[in-house]
Amino acid sequence: MERHGLREIHQGLSRRDLLRLAGVGVSGLGLAAIVGCGSDDSKGSATGTPGAVVDPPPETTRLRMARTPSICPAPQYLAEEFLGAEGFTDVQYIKLAGGGAVSKSLAAGELDISLNFGALGAVRIDAGDPVTLLAGGHVGCWELFGTDRVQAVRDLRGKTVAVSEATGTAPDYGFLASALTFVGMDPTKDVNFEAHKTDEAIQLLADGKVDAYLAFPPVSNDLRARKIGHVVLSSVTDRPYSQYFCCMVTVNSDFFAKHPAATKRALRAILKGADVCAHEPERAARFIVDKGYTDNYDYALDTMKMIPYNVWREFDPEDTLRFYALRLKEARIIKSTPDEIIRRGTDWRLLNELKRELAV
Asked: By CB count within 10 A, which of 148, 225, 228, 295 is most buried?
């Protein structure tokens, strides 16, 4: 499908956005009113409007999603506003350290559904783990910060980079390995990766003892505010990464098989959350601060405005899996081809249904 450039996304509202704003008067409504009336539980309606697609009630009323230090997966936090109307009475946000832990917990069945870095989905699918990617979530969130010795990704040759873990199941290493193979470098030979905790990595970067560090909000907001290093690469604005999803909606495959109606309803709530982030960033930022997901409103608002949350309808999630699977195979992190990853671990049917149901 034809993609919209980020310039269009950032500088002007699409026709759909204009219709949305004109039709519902966004600024004067609550979160649920922004993106529809929610479900009519008595009828199992997708939207509660005449002629809407009728869904059966969820097969389970419990839903488990991740809660991590990152604020980029805000749509799943905002989903809380809609999950009650979708029939969920026991919504649990499980505290985890980061994307690698999210990926592992989804595979283990400790989480039901969550946003997670799409490349990690490819790694889990390659390993035969029971995860299925359902939809794209948003573009961007990764920013590579470097010292003056690093002005481009190619400058990482022979340099030291701080990561959470130097393994393909770690999201930061997976992204950097993809970026390195894209410019013809071998992450296992050309770069020295060191595992450090976040605070330690930041101090090492500030002291010039490592050459680069990959961060996401709110850490990246703090690095910019403190003028530690400079942005070498941004997956929000720099091609090709700005043309692909970062976080994607991933479900435990067993949960999906047993609870297809619940899965669709959970996905709908997450995508409605993405619409809130896109169209009312101030309200979304206030929500995640009030709920304790982060404590800095300015950082939260900057993130809501920076990340394109409105592209889940427009970009093709299969393109993202194809891009990252190819890079990860070149990095020898996975063995499967992109087509094998897509065939074994994706299902876009619910997304296609919800694109029609949530169209404006």
From this structure: 228
